[in-house]
Amino acid sequence: MKLAGMKTALGAMVLAAGAMTCVSAWAKTSKSLETPSTNWNSRIAVTDNGSHQFGNPDAPVKLTEYVSYTCPHCAHYQQQSDPVLRLTVVPKGKVQVTVTNLLRNPIDLTIAMLTNCGDPNRFFVRHNAFFATQETWLEKAQKATKGQQQRWFQGPMITRLRAIASDLDFYKMMSGWGIDRTQADACLADSTMLDKLRAQQEQAASLKINSTPSFTLNGKVLTDVHDWAAVSTAITDTLAEQRDGTI
């Protein structure tokens, strides 16, 4: 799904926010890195720009997903890819996955702020849940009144994000994870997280990535690859080439 341009109202919101890091360290015990039974799915890290990772940090294949929460293709990709990755190559320590936001609109921004709200080790629970319920809340967004949409695009940013969270029942979702409205509002106002999301947009732009979902494999952009079938093939081919010693 092609983006309508990076300098939209959302881009202006993110880039104009101003100043309103550190990489989470992996546990470095030799036992955790050498034991075949290591639960790589539970190995979570956060990068400098706020992207989230799971899997073996020393995996030979590093997959980065650039996704938008309002992109139906991204939701479809997530539903197809996540169970397979977590049951096959990630547990074997062969693949590490990084999730980076590619924001397209204020709803994306609101969800990105909320998925980063709370325990970082629970990020993927929130991430998966927003994609799993996309059809429900996206339908509400599509049926929003002119008055609601006006609140989403006018006024102070925090007021806009709170209006979206309220209109689309995101506060109710957050409460299911023990995060009340006051805590969620604090996360929506987190200027440090906003700066990290801005850095994610800059990273995507530097790679000339302008559609969702998009991917890099070991730092290389997968050109014209936007679905799980193609990503799966790229992973399989890369692992085969490494076994054969051709890369």
From TrEMBL:
SUPFAM superfamilies, alphabetized: Thioredoxin-like
InterPro entries: Thioredoxin-like_fold, Thioredoxin-like_sf
Source taxon at top rank: Bacteria
The entry's keywords: Isomerase, Signal
Secretion signal, residue range per the UniProt entry: 1-27
Molecular function in Gene Ontology: isomerase activity
Gene3D superfamilies xref list: 1.10.40.110, Glutaredoxin
Thioredoxin-like fold domain boundaries: 49-236
Protein known as: Protein-disulfide isomerase
Organism: Novosphingobium malaysiense
Lineage: Bacteria, Pseudomonadati, Pseudomonadota, Alphaproteobacteria, Sphingomonadales
